[in-house]
Write a structure and sequence with these properties.
single chain; 266 residues; alpha+beta; Peroxisomal Thiolase, Chain A, domain 1; 8-stranded mixed β-sheet; globular
Length: 266
């Protein structure tokens, strides 16, 4: 399959969570300019699919990823066991990474086993499979500042190759400690899409095409919604969701130093 040929998919559902836009209904209204983000940041969600003890131990990255994943499944009326899943995060859990580095530097024998197993990049995917008791395949990827577009491309590619609905989840949290100077990120932000090959109950159809040049769009660049997530590492995904909310026909996202992911939306 040539990357120059548009890759088509249908969006069955959208889920969204940020500190000041904790659901897609509010976020889409804010992205259209019909509402304002909440003035008081919300507490992190508590994904109910986890047992109480696991829910308490789960780090912020897992909590927000599982929250939007669950909401997307509910909105699409699909069970997790029916879905292939792609998880994408720019940095993973930077708070735990900072803890591990600081502890290794000062008291290496005090490393928490729980913290350590939550530090791996596929921690959210692992919690998802445990909480939903699903054995379907999952992928956990990162592509630094190109993560959202790379993850979306991966999800659509798997959809078309396997002809199985795909749950795509992307998330990032705040950086802490010295790592914040190298990998800056603020706040909590997670999004999810369920993608299908059929148009049944679809919210939109997307066609992806790789093009030369990282043709960055200006959509949502100057808005209260954009300002509320601007510091987060996943913020460059917002033009895509603005295009969905505003029913814009196309948007481009950075996919590499000299590549852009052009997305037609109908």
């Amino acid at each position: 399959m040539s990357a120059r040929v548009p890759l088509d998919a249908h969006i069955a559902s959208v889920a969204f969570w940020s500190d000041c836009m904790p659901n897609w209904e509010l976020a889409s209204a804010c992205l259209r300019g019909d509402a304002m983000p909440l003035s008081t940041p919300q507490s992190r969600p508590a994904p109910m699919l986890l047992a109480p003890a696991e829910r308490r131990r789960a780090p912020d990255s897992v909590a927000i990823a599982l929250e939007v994943a669950s909401r997307a499944c509910t909105a699409a009326a699909l069970q997790p066991q029916e879905l292939t899943t792609v998880f994408a995060s720019t940095h993973g859990d930077l708070a735990i990474s900072d803890y591990l580095c600081a502890t290794l530097a000062t008291a290496p024998t005090h490393i928490s086993p729980t913290k350590f197993h939550n530090s791996v990049h596929n921690a959210a995917a692992g919690y998802w499979t445990i909480g939903t008791q699903t054995h379907t395949p999952y992928t956990a990827i990162s592509a630094y500042q190109y993560t959202f577009a790379a993850g979306l491309l991966e999800a659509v590619t798997q959809l078309l190759c396997d002809d199985r609905p795909v749950l795509y989840v992307a998330y990032d949290i705040a950086a802490r400690g010295p790592l914040a100077t190298m990998a800056p990120s603020t706040g909590l932000f997670a999004v999810a899409l369920i993608l299908r090959t059929t148009a049944v109950n679809a919210a939109a159809r997307i066609a992806l095409q790789i093009r030369n040049g990282a043709n960055l769009p200006g959509a949502a660049a100057q808005s209260a919604a954009a300002d509320s997530v601007r510091g987060n590492a996943l913020a460059n995904s917002l033009p895509f969701f603005a295009a969905l909310a505003q029913r814009t026909h196309s948007v481009a996202l950075p996919l590499g130093e000299n590549l852009g992911l052009h997305i037609e939306i109908t």
